[in-house]
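Homework help board

Subject: predicted structure for assignment chain

Our instructor gave us this sequence and asked us to write out the predicted structure in token form, then describe one feature. I got the tokens but I'm not sure how to describe them. Can anyone check?
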Amino acid sequence: MSPIATDTRPPVLLPALAVAGTVLTWSASFTAIGYALREIAPLPLASIRFALASVFALAWIAWRRPRSFLRRDYATLAISGVLGITAYNVLLNSGQASVSAGAAGFIVNTQPLFMVLLAVVFLKERFSRWSWVGALVGFSGVAVIASGQPGGLSFGEGSTLIVLAAACAAAYSILQRPLFARAAPLDVTAFVIVAGAIALLPWLPTGLSQAAKAPADTLIVVAFLAIGPGIIGQSCWTYALKRFGAARAGQFLYLIPPVSVVLAWLLLGEAPKATTLFGGAMALTGVVIVNLWGRRSR
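My token output:
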């Protein structure tokens, strides 16, 4: 009986801590980005953040020396870095220049809805009527949130840029899925971070120049963005995926929007609007329908 007790306790505590680390760090990233944008422009902020994160990623690669990748995998890693790191953060940072941190947390969490659409087109997965109902409800929530933000749903405005960031994150997730069959998730993450940091190098000199003039608290926030959401959050998420499985672990991401709104309210004084709360509830409801009722009724 003792071996059974030993096996059941760690999978309960450690995955719970991993989920908590993921939700807290990723939720706080929206507030931290909003704070750092006061001193550093969107693209330079993304560049300096991932330049710092890549230092840790390169150290991991040098220590692990992973040899499980095929030659063609490096092209996939490079594209994943451009989509999931460069494009995502450039779009998200640029969008947050005119969209509140709380609303950005809601809008970008439509990523699972884009993953449904991409899975149908590229992975040939079939979804039930309830899945499409959920997708419609979710995107309607995004429209409600965006309608209360500067620029509404006009292309090129902040809300639209964040929707595009969510689409990039979804494409990145779909693209890298085959790599996990033969490579450790943390190895994949390390290479993706480095690839994204390289693509952001053109804005690094400006980022360093603006950071040199920024106050100490802004530099602390930038360091948090690199180490917290970038390294700790991703590591916690990888562990949660291994223990819970992708379907179950994905449900915990729905905690990120409400937590990000609370953090933005407490730290930035951004009181949530009624449209933000109502649209966020619709978006979360849509994602839950797709991932729960839609899967059961197939």
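Reply (TA_rk): Your tokens look well-formed. For the description, you could write something like this. The chain has a mean pLDDT of 80. That's the kind of observation they're looking for.
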